[in-house]
Amino acid sequence: MSVLFLLLSLPLLLSPALSFPFGNTSYFIDCGGSTNTTDPFNTTWLSDRYFTGGATSVVSEPLHFLYPQEKNLRFFPLSSGKKNCYILPLPNGRYYFRTFTVYDNYDGKSNSPSFDASVEGTLVFSWRSPWPETLDRDGAYSDLFAFVKDGEADVCFYSIATDPPVIGSLEIRQIDPLSYDSSTIGDKFILVNYGRLSCGSNQWGPGFSNDTDDFGRTWQSDLEFRTPNTTKIINSISTRETITGTVQPPNYFPMKLYQTAVTGNGILEYYVSVDAKMDYLLWFHFAEIDSSVKQKAGRVFDVLVNEKNVERVDIFAEVGSFAAYSWSYTVHNLSSPVLTVKFVPVVGAPIVSGIEFYALVPNDLSTMPEQVVAMRALKESLRVPDRMGWNGDPCAPTSWDAWEGVTCHPNKDESALVISHIDLGSQGLKGNLSSNSLGGTLPSGLGQQSLVQLDLSNNQFVGPIPESLASATHLQLV
């Protein structure tokens, strides 16, 4: 398992107390909730009843969960189609996405579902039955960073076999577009979180504590990621002193991250289970919060990633004491399903405040924007039934089936997907709307140069043939 809609004109949830140069647009959606609610952290959660289809339910043990957005559920039975989406209008930019997913036998079938989830047309999370028992009962938060380039965020779910996808909550927050080395990495990757560790502390951040993080990030305890030998020698330390150099653009790392740390007389080692054959971005966080270290070379240690020595660290030499020091390293084409990080002493004992692990998932190809607009217009005009799953991008992700009756392929320069065939005649849909007919008028803009076959037979359409179809020079069949 990898860890990590209907367009409605609703006001965005803004945070008026905060002002960032990159914007502060955000959504907090209680999936399956019937009314808007406010949690103990003063966050308002929107009911999703106007955002998507499917059906609603609640977990089987509501008292086991703290907040409504963890108890309420939205699920998508096969009658809603294999693909269902939330499509949310947003300014173009970079965003933090977080979902809460839980099963907790809400349907009484004792069968946790298998399904995929995508963001902006790229597969990011896969859930396969049976889920681990703790995940099944307690649920899990998954998060990532992604760019939005078309004025809307698409978060979609795809049923495997006949299992209904399920979701508890969805959060989207705008962040600095230059964060996490995007000027070097570019905007063609999604950063999927495999572990965001705050060393020497409990889990904290928005939704878990009153501690702030301007990006909405939550930070896990490092405890379960330590090796057994590390657990034997490790010590946690903390300070209330101000740490300089925190909450700075473009990453806005919070001060609390650097006010706790772990140290120990020996090698400190961490391991994270990952998916092989991918690239990973690692971020390391340090601060010299031990006042006994008063000069350069007072504490020196090496950082090894999968046994490769990638950096020698002297925090005091870099920034002095009680100051934040962070840097990143990219692992290319990882051959192992495990990422290991070691902090090896050279002078004194290593000290570590935090580590982040992100998979660099390449953006999948998406359908050409003008074809997306035309296909959505076709869906509305023809009243295509829900069971056909005409939601989100017609062709993406490429690992999923395209919209039923639609065939796609990459364009000549493989920069986008184009629609080559539309076959709705094979659906045998006739009659009126109550019997799932396809009727109405054909929208303008439907024909594109990539379209070579269009079959709308055995349906009931009215009105003229659009000029765009008449001018489609490669169209073979209407």
Write up what this structure looks like.
It is a single-pass membrane protein. The protein is mainly beta and 478 residues long. It has three domains: 13-177, Galactose-binding lectin (Jelly Rolls), CATH 2.60.120.430; 191-362, Galactose-binding lectin (Jelly Rolls, Sandwich), CATH 2.60.120; 369-470, no CATH class. The chain contains eight helices and 31 strands. It has helices spanning 68-71, 133-138, 182-185, 228-233, 255-258, 315-319, 369-382, 467-470; strands at residues 13-14, 25-30, 37-38, 44-47, 55-58, 72-75, 83-89, 93-101, 115-119, 122-127, 140-148, 152-159, 166-167, 169-175, 189-198, 220-221, 234-238, 260-264, 268-273, 279-287, 300-305, 308-313, 324-331, 338-347, 351-352, 354-362, 406-410, 417-423, 439-440, 453-455, 460-461. The strands form seven sheets. Strands 1, 2, 3, 4, 8, 11, 14, 15, 16, 20, 23 and 26 form a twelve-stranded mixed sheet that branches. Strands 7-12-9-10 form a four-stranded antiparallel sheet, with no helix packed on it. A hairpin with a 2-residue loop joins β9 (115-119) and β10 (122-127). The longest helix has 14 residues, at 369-382. The two termini are 44 Å apart.
| Main beta sheet strand tally, sense and closure | 12 strands, mixed
Instruction: Give the DSSP E fraction (strand runs of 2 or more residues).
Output: 35-45%
Number of helices: 8
CATH architecture of the largest domain: Sandwich
Number of strands: 31
Key phrases:
478 residues, mainly beta, Jelly Rolls, 12-stranded mixed β-sheet, 4-stranded antiparallel β-sheet, 31 strands, 36% strand, globular, signal, membrane, Leu-rich_rpt
